[in-house]
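Researcher: Going back to the complex we discussed earlier. I've cleaned up the inputs and rechecked each line, so this should be the final set. Can you rerun the prediction on the complete assembly and write out the structure?
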Amino acid sequence: MFAPFLLALRGAGLPVSVTEYLALMGAMREGVAAYSVEDFYFLSRAILVKDERHLDRFDRVFAEAFKGLEAAEGLNPRALPEEWLRKLAEKLLTPEEMAKIQALGGLEALMQRLAELLAEQKGRHQGGSKWIGTAGTSPFGAYGYNPEGVRIGQDKSRHKRAVKVWDKREFRDLDGDVELGTRNFRLALRRLRRFARQGAPVELDIPDTIRSTANNAGMLDLKLVPERHNAVKILLFLDVGGSMDEHVRLSEELFSACRTEFKHLEYFYFHNFTYERVWKENRRRHDRVVPTEEVLRTYGPDYRLIFVGDAAMSPYEILMPGGSVEHWNEEPGRAWLDRLTTHYRRSAWLNPTPEGGWAHTQSIGVVRQLMAGRMFPLTPDGIEAMTRELGR
Amino acid sequence: MIGDLPVAAFTSTETYIASRDLEVAVNAAVSLQRPLLVKGEPGTGKTMLAHEVAAALGLPLIEWHIKSTTKAQQGLYEYDAVSRLRDGQLGDPRVHDISNYIVRGKLWDAFEADAPVVVLIDEIDKADIEFPNDLLLELDRMQFFVYETRKTVTAKHRPVVIITSNNEKELPDAFLRRCFFHYIRFPDRPTMERIVAAHYPDLRSDLAREALNVFFQIRDVPGLKKKPATSELLDWLKLLMVDDLPAEVLRSKDTHVVIPPLHGALLKNEQDVHLFERIAFLARRGGG
Ligand SMILES: Nc1ncnc2c1ncn2[C@@H]1O[C@H](COP(=O)(O)OP(=O)(O)OP(=O)(O)O)[C@@H](O)[C@H]1O
Ligand SMILES: [Mg+2]
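Model: Rerun complete. Updated structure for the full complex:
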């Protein structure tokens, strides 16, 4: 019963592994959830979920997995003995298969094979096949026998509740509204960091200490310097044009990764391409306009400029006065791009569309050319390549 | 080492209201000797949890508060070479024993303790993203090696480890795999009433009711920069009690009456105050 549950969790994208499975077995044995089904739910949640964004998915899988087990007299789950996995492997897999799985990466592969077997088992279930059944010899007979596992008690009153805790879906709004996967981006962005000493002197400056100690005829004379901080300054220009809608998630991830990685971070929004104005607040596009001139005046050339956009538009929008789809622009967008890339000595363009498709969009080619080739895909690898470019 | 620990028995107390799922998570972590990672909105009682667990188990608490500059090594020990150099110059005999200059960190203290302790690693997300990875082995095996003295420090008793995070940074998978996890959901109204009652048993019930109405209304305002949480509610209630405000004031639809008692305690920045004013204004127009 647990195996399909765990597999379903994996299927739903929760990174559960044998480690968690064994921990759950251990906790059951310790009697942590011996009193009620609800406790069993709480226990498995505490052990199998590692991220609040997964709680809602967990609830759904839990409801599904334990639905069929509710007999009239209540839930009657049985724990499996801890050696279950190993036994299962021994009985179901040939020695050659075992060897292969070991070679393939052990338990991960085992889980995979297990999934296949379970799928097969589903098909044969009706006839009381060798897989499931009352015959205690089948490892899947573990459904029916339980020499040492911990039983979950049947708390009848709790079952009368109209809604089970996991059916309340209380974590629904946590699923996915927080930044996802920024870790990879942040690790990639790290290369950009440039350390400089700022603030109060708290760190020992060894060369200086030795020098002045020597000057002092060998009596120790401590010299301190301020701690090193990341001093890189980043200016982000984020495209919020319509075609970017499908990339919002990715852009947000990049944005929050930048925000945690860099103290000096300024960002502006633009629509499709750079013109004489940008926005500070995406929602107030029409009243909080910042002239691009002002950006150039305010943020010095030491800022590293990163554009984030799909660069998918009509080439007119880049090359012609009045080409903008939103307003009348006196000067072609490219003039502004040139100004920006000249003022900021280090700049690059991150493109959320997959690199393979770039050649099919004319405007991407144009922007790439204007950026002198410094366009990178918005992936951890792309960011890493970009940081190498910007870090030079 | 199993058996060292008292029977896992963490439950809600007079002063700390824990939901059943939190109780189960804590007891599972204690009995399986795994670190418990606790997340949740600011002010939902993550830090206080560690104090309560220590009290419930009757164990001392060792607190390690993490800052952006904290290094994992500092939790183990630091070697104070500079003091040793200075002592050497002054001819202090202590200088011959390097262990005089090994400064123990919080984890060392916890490992060396003669009885089990509870260790709180508070706000782990404040540190560098590599910080959790640097503690994997120590938390797994509950031991570490001191290079200077060539000694291994092993926990006499595996401590109960509680780790809090405010989600400023994502934690590495390898680290997460070793922890049990609990997300403290923001308390619903009945739970909040219990928390309030736990803190202020003498609070007038009409004032409590109106205050909670206002509090949950404010939390519902979309777009607030900083939603007030439990700790803000408690601070605010204290102010209201000190002023001995009649409950009607809180029911008033006039923002000039309502806002001043809110400002500072519940709404912590100008922008949010403006937002609230606007919404209260609209509500008034809609209602009248
Ligand atoms: N469940 C609760 N029962 C009783 N009091 C609570 C509870 N939750 C929060 N509080 C009160 O709120 C205050 C803030 O809690 P605490 O500092 O532990 O929150 P936190 O989650 O650690 O916040 P932060 O993320 O800001 O560090 C506590 O001092 C306590 O008075
Ligand atoms: Mg705290």
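Model: Worth noting: Chain A is about 40% helix and 15% strand.
Researcher: Good, that matches what I expected from the previous run.
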